[in-house]
UniProtKB/TrEMBL annotation:
Domain N-acetyltransferase, residue spans: 5-175
Any matching Pfam family: Acetyltransf_1
Signal peptide (from-to): none
Organism, scientific name: Pseudoxanthomonas sacheonensis
CDD domains: NAT_SF (cd04301)
PANTHER family, alphabetized: AMINOALKYLPHOSPHONATE N-ACETYLTRANSFERASE-RELATED-RELATED
Keywords per UniProt: Acyltransferase, Transferase
UniProt-recorded name of the protein: Ribosomal protein S18 acetylase RimI-like enzyme
Amino acid sequence: MKTNAVIRPARLADAADLSALMRRTFIAANGHCSSPENVAGFLDAAYTPELQAREIRDPDTLTVIVEQDGQWAGFAQLRWGTTPPPVVSLLPTVELGRIYLDSAFHGRGLAAQLVSNLLAAASLRGSRSVWLNVWQEAAQAIRFYQKHGFEIMGSSLFRVGDDVKDDWVMMQALPTA
């Protein structure tokens, strides 16, 4: 398994390319979850270059890009500024808001490296836990998160356009110093 990845913070100059990667990976993972109109609306609301630039500048958001052999393989995002669901009681906490790999890079161990990097970043900033939402029908993603220490704590709703999806809220406690 090849895992010589470079994980680095996103830069403002990355916003347009990052937006394109986010759109591609969301469609690959979730494009089938709703109507084409709902998916397109979601993409236009969540993954624009302007929004990515704003998130890159946000001190309460850490967006990282994972590269392998000079190619962008994926990205992830930690968000300290979001309000956790009530089932997440181990505070302070941070949301793992996004984590996606381009399908060409699946099976190389990059996602595990990315999660490890994110958990370390969360700990360094003083978070006691990390939480995330995952679509209840995304069995592979749920298994991945469970393999990496996340537990289902409850449920939430997620909107793709006007289509409401059932998500699991998962959390992992971080080691304390």
